Amino acid sequence: MKTVVIPTGKPYEVLIGRGLIGRAGQEIARVHAPCRVCVVSDSRVSALYFFSLEAALKAAGFESRLFTFPEGEASKTLQTFGEAEAFLFASGLTRSDLVVTLGGGVAGDLGGFAAACYQRGIPFVQIPTSLLCAVDASVGGKTAVDLPGGKNMVGAFHQPILVLCDTAAFSTLDEKRWADGAAESVKHGLIRDTALFERMSSPLWREDVDSTVEMNLEVKKSFVCGDETDRGKRQLLNFGHTVGHAVESLSGFSLSHGQAVAIGMAAEMRAARRMGMSAAGENDVIPVLRSLGLPTECPFGYREVVEAALGDKKRAGNTITFAVLDRIGQARLEKTDLDTFAEYVRLGVE
Ligand code: GLY
User: Fold this and answer.
1) Residue whose CA lies nearest to ligand 1 atom number 4
2) Least buried of 37, 236, 265, 338, by fewest C-beta within 10 Å?
3) Per-residue pLDDT for 26 more than 90?
4) Residue nearest (by alpha carbon) to ligand 1 atom 2
């Protein structure tokens, strides 16, 4: 088993290994006294793993109940959030009790936000069961739900007290979900770690997925540490997401997050090169993304992408800040006015 410590205001561990769901009770008992637990999970993942999680929690003295919602981004709404809060209240949870999120990014973001708001904040544990959630969303404390047309528009920073990444759960991921996690891994390699970027072209990334997750979390940790609330260097993690979030929203979420980020990375690299902002060419990256089963061509016109991107949180008044690569393995932030940004998107998408 591997352990990565995330040194936020209140540091917490991420454990990475096979079989952690079956040991969840004893691991959670190291950081929280036995209590009432509400597990937040979608219909697919809860059918696969809630039974073992419940038994593991019970063996360590935790009493659990399940809040479940239909699988998919369409559930990440204020309505489901309200239902989750009502469930916590009806279950009699108090501030000494726990939320445990079990699943991918939707369960983590929704359940984490429910924990952040319930009685002004109760602790929560993340159990990511997808590669995408393990390498990104489960760590760093971003929790949120979407508004119509606006991803993650309502949320809070609320760090988990523990993350249990059971890599045996990846065995039930389909190829599209593996590719979603691969897209974020490529991003982490591009902005900070050339060895991780190169690893994504070798079978090793999947054969030894525990090490791949660990490498990703070392990158993520380096950006979250010192900028928990996303005011500075953490924004470098948004590489590929300026265009990516826009195309994800424009597609009505028929493009998955990883697919949208892959399109976003290719477009943003092309744009930065054509604008003279970056010497890093997209031609070294597009074949890697394609070999991982990810799309790289934007299916939307630049005007609609600009409009969607300007509705995102990355805009501050009449400026927008986005990440560009100096070279593979190193990124910096660029802040531009909105006209320059529109030209940047046009050059990336056309
Ligand atoms: N997913 C980007 C971040 O956590 O900042």
Assistant:
1) 140
2) 338
3) yes
4) 237
Q: Report the distance separating Cα 56 and Cα 34, nearest Å.
A: 12
Rounded CA separation 238/317 (Å): 18
- Calculate how far, in angstroms, residue 141's C-alpha sits from the geometric centre of ligand 1: 9
> Collapsing DSSP states into helix, strand and coil, what is residue 163?
strand
Q: For residue 314, name the pLDDT band (cuts at 50, 70, 90).
A: confident
pLDDT of residue 87 exceeding 90: yes
Range of the domain at 64: 2-172
CATH code for the domain in which residue 18 is found: 3.40.50.1970
The β-bridge partners of 162 are 13, 125
Q: How far, in Å, is the centroid of ligand 1 from the Cα of 333? A: 15
What pTM did the predictor assign? 0.96
* Cα–Cα distance measured from residue 85 to residue 67, given in angstroms and rounded to the nearest whole number: 10
Spatial distance between the Cα atoms of 262 and 271, rounded to a whole number of angstroms? 14
Same domain membership, residue 306 and residue 165: no
Are residues 167 and 184 both part of a single domain?
A: no
Distance from Cα 101 to the centre of ligand 1, integer Å: 18
Task: Say yes or no: CB of residue 237 within 6 Å of ligand 1.
Answer: yes
**CB of residue 142 inside a 6 A radius of ligand 1:** yes
Same domain, 167 and 186: no
Are residues 191 and 242 part of one domain?
Answer: yes
Q: Which atom of ligand 1 is nearest to the CA of 238?
A: 2
The answer for 120, left when phi > 0, alpha when psi is -120 to 50, beta otherwise, is: left
